[in-house]
Amino acid sequence: MVRHLGGIEQYFYQRSSLNLHSCFSVGVELNSLPNRSDFICALRRVVNSHFQLYCNAYKSNNEVVVNPIGEPIKFDDVVDYMDWDTYGEEEINSVFRKYNFEYGVDKPLWKVIVVPKANKMIFATDHLFFDGIATVLFWTELLKSLEELKQDNDLDVDEIIYRPGGSTDSIDQCHPYEKLPIPFSWKVKRPIVKALFTIAPGAVVSQDASIIQFDEYKIPEDYLKKNSNDDGCYQIKNTNRQISLKMSSNKLKVIMKDCKQHHVSFTAYLTAVLYLALGKIPKEKYSGSTIKYEVPMNTRNRISNSGEYSNSYGTFVAGGEFIETLDFERDEWELAQSIHKKIVEKSTTGVMDAINEARLLELVDAKKFMKMKFETTTGPSSTFEVTNLGFQNFSQNEHSKYTVTDAFFNEPQLFTNLITYSVISTPSGGLNCSMAYPEKLDSILCNSVAFLKNKFN
């Protein structure tokens, strides 16, 4: 059976096809790096267990289908060793500029970048087959595979980690969202949206004029390095500031205890702090009366009670969009409680609506939708996005040979969000939050950054 792209996959596919998104990355810092031979053996085991690691998306009869790549994958095809002293802003942005994975070719949609001098490994990937949690699952499985190697492997180990021609039984027949029944209310909405997009597409992609915008940052001129070429593709600058906000394990424990006492999730508390940080911006620097923030939801355990998708790769996300009126005098915990209530409602009773909203892309020309969404934008449609991958120990224990001493999560420059906060926490490294925003806003956001660094420290 041919595997077609689902609506949410079409969104990511068209966004990347137009070069409006290159890749995102989740990395780990280890106590020591595996030798090449062990790395090859462990990676081979993981790659052959998940079709997302050996497939690409190909055009076939005016449709896009998922197929295994037709060429062997060698270790050097997917692992790059970099002679960097560190992995900071310059290196992060260089990854986003360099790794723009191509569809329709016999190459996988991911890379592992190794930085030996910093004991770091970074998994960079396209969004078609991976969300943030899927990358955590990748690292968890790879480290487990390394631990299970019986002995050190010979240096002349076969460097081919995938050979084409195997069984395709592991390829899902469709995206799991497509297996879900469509509620009656959405059966009514779907033909209306389809007709509206045909008759008045501007109404579908319009953005809220009340959301704050900055005169100093405009799209497309401050977002693109180059406008669309003859092939209709763009070129993003990817020159964001990449500010590292760190919170120690001890401080994180204290904050988590405070969150419990106030009956809020850590994500809600963090979102409240990020909201209040914007209050440090001089009022004359922006226009608008509301802040829109996004908190993407992991739907793995929401779409199935059996847990069948708990450890599945793929894109199991749904949009969580919220709007707050500007009021920077609000109490931190009162605001966190309000945000918590909204997030809980959206992630429980509202999650199916969010999924069915994403599925509307099944009905329209996704490429036309994406181009129109971008070309009618003068500024980001969302003030900030918070993606929290949670507290991860990568299934390690005190006897693990390879210990994760830290983890980090980074996102490229986006036209949909002014600021992105990419968060992941580990037992040893505490919390890592990457705050990414356009370099042109550096002086405007400097007081907000100082406020957050003080909060995190």
TrEMBL record:
Biological process annotations from GO: response to xenobiotic stimulus
GO molecular function: N-acetyltransferase activity
CC terms in the record's Gene Ontology section: nuclear envelope; plasma membrane
One Pfam assignment: AATase
Coiled coil: none
Superkingdom per UniProt: Eukaryota
Protein name per Swiss-Prot or TrEMBL: N-acetyltransferase SLI1
Classification of source organism: Eukaryota, Fungi, Dikarya, Ascomycota, Saccharomycotina
